[in-house]
Design a protein that fits this description.
The protein is of the alpha+beta class and 204 residues long. It has 2 domains: 55 residues; 124 residues, Lipocalin (Beta Barrel). The termini are far apart. The chain is built from 2 helices and 8 strands, in the order αβββαβββββ. Strands 1-2-3-4-5-6-7-8 form an 8-stranded antiparallel beta barrel.
Length: 204
């Protein structure tokens, strides 16, 4: 091999390794930020519960407890998109569509397809047929659940499609993250792994 060609190959290898390392640290930073946000919200909920315990609801003129005002619907409905590298699946694209038939009662759809390639997929699992199947028949489930203190918890009502390993979300938690994003974390069935990512509102 000529020195010039060898140098080019070394540069390409270095660029590939550097991109993988950068992606790894970006994902770790996102994970740390998500769990930090969860801890902050837990502390806020605890403080709110303490305040409610020390300040009971005022009584109505008739002697009973005053009725709570009706709850307003949230502004989290609509489609949300996100993507992330998931070990064993490669690059994955997720879409969640939320509706709120009544305040803090939610239903939604979850769809995910993955490319099945890249450094996060073992060499013996890279397969063109698997890629095609994931594109044509993505993971898809129908969910419903409730919201409390801004956090939405949904459970799967019906599985429409699974990945090539037979995995699909059994539940998903959506937490507002910053002003424009949602942190999504989902669990899957036995012998499967859930994951998490950040989502942004999609155009309808």
């Amino acid at each position: 091999m000529q020195p010039k060609h060898k140098k080019i190959m070394l540069i390409c290898a270095a660029v590939f390794i550097a991109s993988y390392v950068v992606r790894y640290f970006v994902l770790e930073a996102m994970r740390m930020a998500y769990y930090q946000q969860q801890a902050i919200r837990a502390a806020q909920r605890k403080q709110l519960a303490k305040q409610k315990a020390t300040n009971p609801a005022p009584s109505s003129p008739t002697g009973g407890t005053a009725a709570a005002p009706p709850k307003a619907q949230s502004n989290l409905t609509g489609p949300w998109n996100g993507s992330a590298g998931i070990p064993g699946k490669g690059r994955c694209w997720v879409r969640v569509e939320l509706t709120e038939p009544e305040p803090e009662k939610y239903s939604g759809n979850f769809t995910m397809n993955c490319n099945g390639t890249g450094p996060m997929v073992a060499r013996n699992r890279k397969n063109g047929a698997i890629y095609a199947q994931n594109q044509l028949d993505p993971v898809a489930v129908i969910l419903s659940g409730t919201g409390e203190n801004g956090i939405i918890k949904l459970n799967t009502d019906k599985v429409i499609g699974t990945d090539t390993s037979g995995c699909a979300p059994t539940s998903i938690t959506l937490t507002p993250y910053g002003a424009t994003e949602l942190a999504a974390q989902w669990e899957e069935g036995p012998n499967c792994e859930g994951w998490h990512l950040l989502m942004r509102r999609a155009r309808q």
